[in-house]
Write a structure and sequence with these properties.
323 residues; mainly alpha; globular; binds zinc ion; 63% helix; 0% strand
């Protein structure tokens, strides 16, 4: 893990404690303002309506699925129907885990953060048009740090490896996360909300944008090179995420961002230099389809982890010097 990334993780952790000291001052100021009749027009306490969230998720899923089938970026190496079925089964367990373990906690936490004015963004009475985008950007940046941790911390890599072990990369990979990874991310999510100071509305906007972004950058969509190059200055794109799913260590250790590409610029981990037809998708020690059945994928984090140390620390797979 690079020094900058370590600093990012430490800063997020230590900021949590410091922020608690100031929140009551701003809270009193806002209470006075509310008494004086100057209340906010935006209701940050309410999440996006279910019909809108449903439309964003279903709309992005349908759009990128149609696009990747019409203009594919990489050639598939596996039987699509078998892979899709396997990945969607893993995804269903992950979705149930999020619903049961994460949602009740984030609902309670965002309400408390809003009421008691905890966290960075509640230090000053910001207008909603600043607070909401700032929350989305900071949540996205802290997801970059979480993604780096899932590769570098041995326990977390055991679970994130299930996602990376897919031998092709497309819309179905986007949904394939081990339920254990979802469970382990709950304390991190709680820390993000508490430290940044995220109310329900910005959290639900970030969640919807994150789902749409994950579907987009995992999709096997061939955008025109020039368009993608420009787009990648702001957002993480399919070619960039393809490089992150490479078996080559130095390529996997790049493009960790989720929605916006600025965290990779910030930490010097952005890459756009590997043509997709030269990338082998997956992890070096899991190259056979028989190693990747539903049962084996679910058991994988709890079984022997041959080759995982090299995968985390680099040194297991290099590209020959023909670039
Ligand atoms: Zn990853």
């Amino acid at each position: 893990m690079k020094a900058g990334q370590v600093l990012g993780v430490l800063a997020l952790g230590s900021a949590a404690g410091l922020l608690m000291q100031r929140h009551h001052v701003v809270r009193q100021r806002l209470e006075k303002r509310a008494v004086a009749g100057r209340t906010k027009r935006f209701d940050l306490k309410r999440e996006l309506p279910p019909w809108l969230s449903g439309a964003v998720v279903a709309g992005s899923f349908a759009t990128f699925l149609w696009y990747e089938n019409k203009w594919p970026l990489r050639l598939r190496t596996q039987n699509a129907a078998r892979r899709d079925l396997r990945n969607l089964a893993i995804a269903a367990l992950a979705a149930i885990t999020v619903r049961m373990a994460e949602k009740p906690l984030t609902d309670a936490l965002t309400d408390r953060v809003h009421r008691r004015r905890w966290g960075l963004l509640k230090l000053a009475p910001l207008p909603a048009w600043i607070e909401v985008p700032a929350a989305v950007v900071l949540m996205d940046y802290s997801m970059y740090l979480w993604h780096v941790l899932t590769h570098r911390v041995p326990l977390l890599w055991r679970f994130h490896r299930v996602h990376h072990a897919d031998l092709d990369l497309d819309m179905s990979t986007a949904t394939r996360f081990h339920f254990g990874e979802m469970l382990l991310s709950v304390p991190w999510r709680a820390m993000q909300i508490l430290t940044i100071g995220v109310s329900r509305l910005p959290l639900s906007i970030w969640q919807n944008a994150t789902v749409a972004a994950i579907l987009f950058h995992h999709s096997n969509s061939r955008l025109p090179q020039g368009v993608e190059r420009v787009l990648s200055r702001v957002f993480l794109t399919p070619r960039m995420h393809g490089i992150h799913h490479s078996v080559v260590d130095a390529e996997r250790d790049s493009n960790w961002a989720t929605i916006f590409s600025f965290p990779d610029y910030l930490h010097g981990t952005r890459r756009f230099d590997i043509p997709q037809d030269r990338i082998t998708i997956g992890v070096p020690s899991l190259r056979e389809e028989e190693q990747l059945t539903i049962g084996r994928l679910l058991k994988m984090p709890f079984s022997s982890q041959e080759g995982t140390r090299e995968e985390r620390e680099g040194g297991s797979c290099h590209r020959q010097a023909s670039r």
